[in-house]
Write a structure and sequence with these properties.
By secondary structure, this protein is of the alpha/beta class. The chain is 12% helix and 24% strand. It has a single domain, classed as Alpha-Beta Horseshoe (Leucine-rich repeat, LRR (right-handed beta-alpha superhelix)). It contains one helix and 15 strands; from the N terminus they run αβββββββββββββββ. The strands form three sheets. Strands 3, 4, 6, 7, 9, 11 and 13 form a seven-stranded mixed β-sheet that branches. A hairpin with a 5-residue loop joins β3 and β4.
């Protein structure tokens, strides 16, 4: 009887050991997901590049004013002179060409009224490359005008081109100092001339007005 009892105990012990071993193997077996893993999305770093202004008809100073806002006169050399501004915009960027012809002067074709004379609403004007002279009385009496940018191609400012512009504070010259006729800035007392380093013909004061070097943006 004792032998049978011992055999029973041994059998129970062996069965218990096998059960424990089976549980241990089950716990050590990692669980697996039947679903396939989602691939990691690979993204490239990008930098937004602004579109060129030139493609949309813009200059570094802003949008070019529509040519329909100007009256013109044709010159013998095939260029044109702007004879009158008939628009309502206040910030003017004069086009370098109108009807495919180079604008060579901002003017006074009929000899009495300047192209912008008496335009009291304009506040800023940009003169484009290709213009060589700003003629008599061109901006006479532009009482709200504050800034003017003049391209390097301009070589002559004629009589009273900027007379009676009391709010004109800054004229930015992109090239050498142009020749001046008489009374160019008469009754325009608070203006400062700004010129680029490396250009010639400048001094301070320049024709009675303060002049300083500026660095273009």
């Amino acid at each position: 009887m004792r032998q049978i009892s011992r055999l029973s105990v041994i059998a129970v012990s062996i069965a218990l050991l096998m059960t424990l071993s089976s549980c241990s193997d089950t716990q050590n077996t990692p669980e697996t997901d039947d679903q396939p893993s989602t691939p990691t999305e690979k993204r490239e770093m990008t930098t937004d590049v602004p579109e060129s202004n030139n493609a949309s008809g813009e200059s570094p100073q802003g949008s070019v004013t529509d040519a329909a806002n100007f009256e013109i006169a044709e010159n013998e050399d095939g260029t044109v002179t702007i004879s009158r501004y008939i628009g309502t915009e206040t910030d003017i960027v004069i086009p370098s060409q109108i009807d495919g012809k180079t604008v060579s002067a901002i003017g006074n074709v009929i000899g009495t009224t300047g192209a912008f004379e008496g335009c009291t609403n304009i506040t800023a004007v940009v003169i484009p490359e290709g213009v060589t002279e700003i003629q008599d009385n061109t901006f006479y009496g532009c009482t709200s005008l504050e800034t003017v940018t003049i391209s390097s191609s301009v070589t002559l400012l004629r009589n009273c081109a900027f007379c009676d512009c009391p709010n004109l504070r800054a004229v930015y010259f992109e090239g050498d100092a142009p020749q001046q006729a008489n009374y160019v800035f008469d009754s325009t007392e608070n203006v400062t001339m700004y010129y680029q380093d490396g250009t010639s013909g400048w001094e301070n004061p320049w024709h009675g007005r303060p002049a300083e070097v500026y660095i273009p943006e």
